[in-house]
């Protein structure tokens, strides 16, 4: 869960998010080095008297500043492509849960548990308990297991939505007439929050996603016991 004045990403709860945080730090360091070099060059140009008449002919320097950015781009692109393919990897999921976006709530279907179906609406402020998060708490949380690959089938009933939980590294569009899927493996229990990340109408800000992650042994007793 993000907190006020947070500068970094949320703590990872899945291997994919750990990879994304590592790549973020890697790309940030490259950006920091490039920015420092450009700033140093600008300051040097502004504070140094250019009296060297041979500075207009520097083929070695031109070669270096052409090849070096290409190398930096390759060092950024290769990890990015690796993570891109990891996010699309489907590794024989143990459970399948379908999420359907509506204006402005979510419907969840547990197809592996006798077709259990329920809706998830945001709780109005008058119904919040002490400690609940305003605009983020829902009446029915989606219950998911940890330490087991889970496949989310995501679609929409009306307009574009996006099922997003940042700490899991998940952001999948819900498109009418199309069934998208994503697979993740959570690593620790807890309650994790997200929101629809696609502008979907007047109440776009009021359709949160709340996932309650529980141990696999408890989940196998049946998610209906925890709803």
TrEMBL record:
It comes from Macaca leonina. It is a multi-pass membrane protein. One of its GO terms (molecular function) is cytochrome-c oxidase activity. This is Cytochrome c oxidase subunit 2. GO terms for biological process: ATP synthesis coupled electron transport. It is found in: Mitochondrion inner membrane. Residues 1-91 form the Cytochrome oxidase subunit II transmembrane region profile domain. Its cofactor is Cu cation. It catalyses: 4 Fe(II)-[cytochrome c] + O2 + 8 H(+)(in) = 4 Fe(III)-[cytochrome c] + 2 H2O + 4 H(+)(out). Component of the cytochrome c oxidase, the last enzyme in the mitochondrial electron transport chain which drives oxidative phosphorylation. The respiratory chain contains 3 multisubunit complexes succinate dehydrogenase (complex II, CII), ubiquinol-cytochrome c oxidoreductase (cytochrome b-c1 complex, complex III, CIII) and cytochrome c oxidase (complex IV, CIV), that cooperate to transfer electrons derived from NADH and succinate to molecular oxygen, creating an electrochemical gradient over the inner membrane that drives transmembrane transport and the ATP synthase. The gene is COX2. Its main location: mitochondrion. Keywords: Copper, Electron transport, Magnesium, Membrane, Metal-binding, Mitochondrion, Mitochondrion inner membrane, Respiratory chain, Translocase, Transmembrane, Transmembrane helix, Transport.
